[in-house]
Specification:
With 231 residues, this protein is mainly beta. It has one helix at residues 23-40; strands at 4-5, 12-13, 42-46, 52-53, 69-73, 80-83, 90-94, 101-104, 111-113, 117-123, 128-130, 135-136, 150-155, 158-162, 170-172, 181-183, 199-202, 207-210. The longest helix has 18 residues, at 23-40.
Length: 231
């Protein structure tokens, strides 16, 4: 009788009384090796030019869809799909590309993995979904930034960089729904140079220095005051 294969992962199912003298090859190539691929094997492909459709040859042959780990690479600049067979399977996806990748069936929505992130996705009976917290591979080195730039969320799942500010500027928030900016401080103390003995005063909007004779205490002046005691 002809050897048959499992539905999901394509392992060989040798029939009793078959494969005389070939049993070792069948077990080694079409069962043992494929189990190893399913548990610890990986497949990698560049998604720079387009989506990645996993090979799914079945029938005891090596293929990408059976692998445990998927590693998309390249610099597509736009989101790419990793199209897997639409049936029960778990994948560890190590996204080494510069764009999001979506692990999905040919006709499903799929699970999205951010660039330079690693995630575990599984088939839930209808689609692939993420089951583990997404882990940033470069948590302290966010791609796209330069020295002095500030990362912030400009939209859901979108990181943008604020260019480095010029000297003396302060980082200012404008509330929910608005991007932060660098601004010139509007309330700062005047320079102290050349104002020895003067005191700081304000008119309600601007701070300035005033001569010591108008208030405060300067060097060489005496102070008079009364002490009142009550018993």
């Amino acid at each position: 009788m002809t050897t048959t294969y499992t539905t999901l992962l394509g392992y060989a199912l040798p029939e009793t009384g078959t494969l005389e003298g070939l049993w070792g090859d069948e077990v080694n190539d079409n069962i043992t090796q494929l189990v190893e691929d399913s548990v610890a094997g990986y497949a990698t492909a560049s998604v720079a030019a387009g989506d990645w459709t996993l090979t799914d040859t079945g029938s005891g042959l090596v293929n990408e869809a059976r692998m445990m780990i998927l590693i998309p690479t390249g610099s597509p600049g736009v989101s790419r799909n990793i199209i897997a067979p639409a049936h029960s399977k778990m994948y560890v996806v190590v996204n080494q590309s510069d764009a999001t990748v979506v692990v999905k069936g040919a006709a499903t929505t799929g699970a999205t993995i951010q660039p330079y992130y690693t995630a575990v996705v599984v088939w839930n009976g209808a689609d692939f979904e993420e089951i583990s917290p997404t882990l940033a591979k470069y948590a302290i080195d966010i791609t796209g930034g330069v020295q002095g730039s500030i990362p912030y969320q400009s939209a859901v799942n979108t990181t943008t960089f604020l260019a480095p500010g010029t000297a003396g500027k302060v980082l200012t928030t404008h509330g929910a729904g608005a991007d932060p900016t660098w601004e010139t401080p509007t309330a700062e103390l005047p320079s102290q140079t050349g104002h020895a003995g003067e005191y700081l005063t304000t008119d309600g909007s601007t701070a300035s220095w005033a001569p010591g004779a108008g208030g405060g205490i300067t060097a060489g002046q005496s102070i008079a005051f009364d002490l009142v005691f009550s018993i």
